[in-house]
Amino acid sequence: MQDTGYRIQDKKTTIMHHESYILLRGSSGITLVELIVVISIIGILVVALGFEFRDWIRKYRVESQIKEMYIDLMNSKARAMQRNRMHFVTLANTQYIIYEDTNPAPDGNENFESALDTLILQRDLNPDYALSWSDLGDPQINFTKAGLSDLDGTKTLCCNSNPDTDYDCIIVSATRINLGTLAAKIPDGGACDEENCIVK
Residue 154 forms beta bridges with which residues? Predict the structure, then answer.
């Protein structure tokens, strides 16, 4: 009888070629131990990346809040020059408001009157990342018609949270507005002042 390379595997007459039979015999799938090891590694990675992601989100929120405030201050300064009117920025721990001096019409009287001047922008801040500033007795920044702030010296605005971000403070002087980072964070005992805010 001639050998064709086929054989009967069992009594149910399943016919198989001997090469495919060898392939099927060698692959037994994955074991339970291998599956548990893979699931454990995935679990460890998910937990580790979860903590990193939370820290990254916290840093992102602080930094975006400070950058947004920086842009609003710069826009207020530019708008004061463009409109030839004083602009006032009032500060609170979880909010800042920008007004345009429009009372009396048309160009105002260069005095801040919240009920009579035009509200330009009111921005609420995240209470987890509250704001503080160097001169707590004066929660206001005024921009003149020339786009200069009427501050004697500087005013530093800081975020009161602890994430290690690239930007978490702003220094406002008569002619400039600069972003910076706090050398010592406020919760760690650092001061919200020009010396602690390092301009980048």
Answer: none
Query: Is residue 134 classed as helix, strand or coil in its secondary structure?
Result: coil
Q: How far apart are CA 126 and CA 114, in angstroms?
A: 23
Q: Is the CB of residue 116 less than 8 Å from the CB of residue 83?
A: no
- DSSP code for 177: E
Evaluated on CA atoms 11, 16, 21, 25, the torsion sign reads negative
Q: Is the dihedral of CA 14, 18, 19, 21 positive or negative?
A: positive
Q: Where are the beta strands (DSSP E) in 10-167?
A: 15-17, 87-92, 95-100, 118-124, 131-133, 140-143, 155-159
- The CA distance from 92 to 64, in Å, is 18
Each domain of the chain, given as residue ranges in start order, spans 32-199
Fold of the domain built from segment(s) 32-199: minor pseudopilin epsh fold (3.55.40)
- Is residue 126's pLDDT more than 70? yes
In the predicted structure, residue 184 carries a pLDDT above the cut 50: yes
Specify the pLDDT at position 23.
Answer: 46
